[in-house]
């Protein structure tokens, strides 16, 4: 079985150079399934970053 690990266990929303989060809710479920904890502040920062990236693409 594939063992997935985020780049930084202290902040699982930090991505590797070529990675990005496409579906935040699905990613959040993956983190919970793998017992990787995150703070509300980290989640809110990730939401802002994803919205900023999406607005740049439009």
Would you spell out the secondary-structure blueprint of this structure?
Blueprint (H helix, E strand, L loop, with lengths): L23 H10 L6 H18 L1
Helix content: 40-55%
| Dominant shape | globular
Coarse structural class: mainly alpha
Rg, please? 12 Å
The largest sheet, given as strand count, sense and whether it forms a barrel, is: none
What sequence of helices (H) and strands (E) makes up the elements?
HH
Q: Number of DSSP helices?
A: 2
Question: Assembly type of the shown chains?
Answer: single chain
How many beta-strand elements?
A: 0
Low-pLDDT segments, ≥5 res: none
Mean pLDDT: 86
Strand % is: under 5%
- Terminal CA distance reads 38 Å
Question: What does the model show?
Answer:
The chain has 58 residues and is mainly α. It is 48% helix and 0% strand. It has helices spanning 24-33, 40-57. The chain is globular and about 35 Å long. The model has no long low-confidence stretch (mean pLDDT 86).
Concise summary:
With 58 residues, this protein is mostly helical. 48% of the residues lie in helices and 0% in strands.
